[in-house]
Amino acid sequence: MRWKLFILSLFISATVYGQGRGCLPTRQDHPFKDGEHITLSLMYKWGAVNTEVGLATIDLDTLQYNGEPTFHVNFKVRSAPFFDLFFKMREDFHSWFSMLDMKPRKFTRDTYEGGYTATNLYHYDWPNKVIHADINLNKRGDTHFEIPLHDCAYDLPALIFYLRTMDLSRMHKGDKYKLSFAIDDSIFDVVLTFHGKEKLNVRRMGKRDALLFTCSVVSGAMFEGDQELKFWFSDDGRYVPLGVMAPLRVGAVWCWLKQYKP
Asked: b/e per residue, 202-227, with b = 16+ CB within 10 A?
């Protein structure tokens, strides 16, 4: 499994699309605004080994896209300089999504992972329920796909912010929600499980009030089957990503909030 699937799995992973309650219940106001910045530390842990292997940054601004008020997010992942010697990783995602309904309008991806390259350009056609996708994967040439859409479908950066508009007053422990995210030429269907509130000991920040979600990880070269990926949002109305734990065949990767500027 390439690192692209691992990076996606840091936030949400593919599982059986079944008995969910429908799309996540959301509120109309946004708990984020123009200028927000988030830095996340990517850590690999195996026994006594616990080392930072990279950083992810998320930057949000606002603009007009085709005359519509729109959020724009730039999500970047960079391997640490030392690990560049073994496996250089550069992920650069951009997403434009509506301030009115949070639905994505455009998405781009530019990836380099140890010699593997990928680019995506999506234009969302909501009236016709399709993504017009131009894809180039590892020097295989340019291809064009028409990817079917449904109301709960997002690209990864838009999905992170959509989850942050959750209406906690309409959610209960054990509830499951149907979502999807698109990457390359595919849609991954997912079911989130909400596990309620708990205290999370965030690396170098201490204990924080958190909301816990889980989903099943992708079984393959890096992951075992029947394991759960866990991720936490802050329980403060802003729903900032605090931590993610992705179990691997050997060890686990943790993603910790390192810096947040509203």
From this structure: bbeeeebebbbbbbbbbeeebbeeeb
* Cβ within 8 Å of residue 84, ≥6 positions away: none
Are 200 and 207 in contact, with CB atoms under 8 Å apart?
Answer: yes
State if pTM tops 0.85: yes
Can you tell me the distance from the alpha carbon of 156 to that of 169, in angstroms, rounded to the nearest whole number?
25
Residue 243 token pair: 């931590």
Q: Which residues pair with 89 in a beta bridge?
A: 113
Name residue, tokens 């990279």: 54
Closest CA to 125 of 148, 152, 108: 148
Could you tell me which of 133, 142, 136, 106 has the C-alpha nearest to residue 119?
136
Give the pairing type, strands 153-155 and 176-183: parallel
Q: Comparing C-alpha atoms, which of 219, 161, 154 is closest to residue 187?
A: 154
Q: How many domains does the chain have?
A: 1
Report residue 100 as tokens: 């009115």
Are 103 and 122 in contact, with CB atoms under 8 Å apart?
A: no
Q: What is the pLDDT of residues 40-71, one digit of tens each?
A: 999 987 776 678 899 999 999 999 999 999 99
| Domain membership of residue 137 as a residue range | 3-261
Backbone angles phi, psi at 148, to 5 degrees: -60, 145
